[in-house]
């Protein structure tokens, strides 16, 4: 295939050449396009063009967009927050922090807080810390907690640990910090939560730590949950909560649950273990329920074991129930 040259007139002189790619839009042209409030497609194209522009030229335009407060700038400001977060230059965190503190739209402020979690460096962590401690808006503080948990900095996680222990802060936010430390944290964070459990008095926070431990596959958390469930010094509600979560783990055996049953002195705890056994698919769980129905001295517990046997599809359970009816069980 032949390519025919294009003849063009530039400055009054004829020139000859081949098609060239269009030059990148000039900053002034982009600024003008962003003022066209009645053309959203053009504005979207302008914002996308800023992503292709070098940071030194793009950032002043983005700052101007973020300073706007007119009605048609809302979508632009939300997009600008994302584009600013992609600029790997000094000062990015200061701009996002200013947006998080001053933008009149809560959604824009939340976006700024979220994107701070993606900005590397200690500056972003400091910004998130100041938002967590300084904001009066609960939703913004929750976003700051989430962003700190997502940040790769060890200091970010230490900020969350310190926050959890601050009795002067809302319990609901401290619960959020525990949740994200348990879900996004390291092995060190998990160890910290287990250690913290023994030092706090709040039952609500204790239950959150138990839940956080249950979401982790770590063997240390499994063993710890079993220990809490079997600890007679704990309240019954806390022990039942630990047992409920640990019974659902794949790495907890039927033998582990039976050991809890045998070690429990309270009928209420034994009933909770029976429920845990009834939720297991292993044939060994049915074996244990039948054994308890045969040998347990507490009549109510024997009845409860029989009840749960009636909920299983194991054919041996049906035969066992028939033996009970015919008074053949020894």
Q: What's the short version?
A:
With 330 residues, the chain is mainly α. It contains 19 helices and 2 strands.
Q: What does the radius of gyration come to?
A: 31 Å
Which sequence of strands runs across the widest sheet? Answer: 1-2
The count of DSSP E runs of length 2 or more, i.e. the number of strands, is 2
Low-confidence stretches: 1-24
Could you report the average pLDDT, rounded to the nearest whole number?
86
Total number of helices: 19
Largest sheet: 2 strands, antiparallel
Question: N-to-C SSE series?
Answer: EEHHHHHHHHHHHHHHHHHHH
> What is the molecular shape?
elongated
Strand content: under 5%
Could you characterize what this model shows?
- With 330 residues, this protein is mainly alpha-helical.
- Among the domains are: 77-152, Alpha Horseshoe (Leucine-rich Repeat Variant), CATH 1.25.10; 178-252, no CATH class; 254-330.
- The chain is built from 19 helices and 2 strands.
- The protein has a two-stranded antiparallel sheet with strand order 1-2.
- Strand 1 and strand 2 form a beta hairpin.
- The chain is elongated, with a radius of gyration of 31 Å.
- 35% of the residues are buried.
């Amino acid at each position: 295939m032949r390519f025919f040259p294009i003849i063009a007139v530039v400055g009054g002189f004829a020139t000859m050449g081949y098609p060239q790619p269009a030059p990148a839009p000039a900053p002034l042209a982009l600024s003008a396009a962003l003022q066209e409030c009645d053309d959203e497609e053009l504005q979207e194209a302008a914002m996308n063009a800023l992503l292709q522009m070098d940071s030194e030229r793009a950032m002043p335009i983005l700052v101007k967009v973020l300073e706007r407060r007119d009605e048609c700038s809302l979508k632009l400001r939300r997009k600008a927050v994302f584009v600013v977060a992609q600029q790997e230059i000094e000062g990015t965190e200061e701009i996002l922090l200013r947006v998080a503190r001053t933008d009149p739209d809560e959604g824009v402020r939340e976006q700024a807080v979220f994107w701070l979690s993606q900005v590397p460096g200690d500056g972003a962590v400091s910004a998130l810390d100041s938002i967590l401690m300084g904001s009066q808006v609960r939703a913004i503080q929750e976003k700051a907690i989430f962003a700190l948990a997502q940040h790769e900095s060890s200091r970010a996680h230490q900020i969350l640990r310190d926050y959890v222990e601050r009795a002067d802060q809302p319990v609901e936010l401290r619960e959020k910090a525990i949740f994200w430390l348990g879900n996004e944290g390291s092995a060190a964070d998990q160890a910290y939560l287990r250690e913290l459990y023994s030092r706090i008095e709040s039952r609500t926070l204790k239950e959150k730590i138990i839940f956080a431990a249950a979401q982790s596959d770590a063997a240390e958390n499994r063993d710890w949950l079993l220990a809490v469930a079997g600890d007679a010094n704990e309240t019954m509600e806390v022990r039942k909560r630990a047992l409920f979560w640990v019974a659902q783990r794949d790495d907890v055996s039927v033998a582990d649950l039976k050991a809890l049953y045998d070690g429990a002195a309270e009928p209420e705890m034994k009933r909770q273990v029976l429920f845990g056994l009834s939720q297991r698919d292993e044939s060994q769980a049915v074996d244990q329920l039948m054994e308890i129905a045969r040998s347990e001295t507490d009549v109510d517990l024997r009845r409860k074991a029989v009840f749960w046997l009636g909920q299983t599809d194991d054919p041996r359970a049906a035969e066992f129930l028939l033996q009970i009816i015919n008074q053949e069980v020894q």
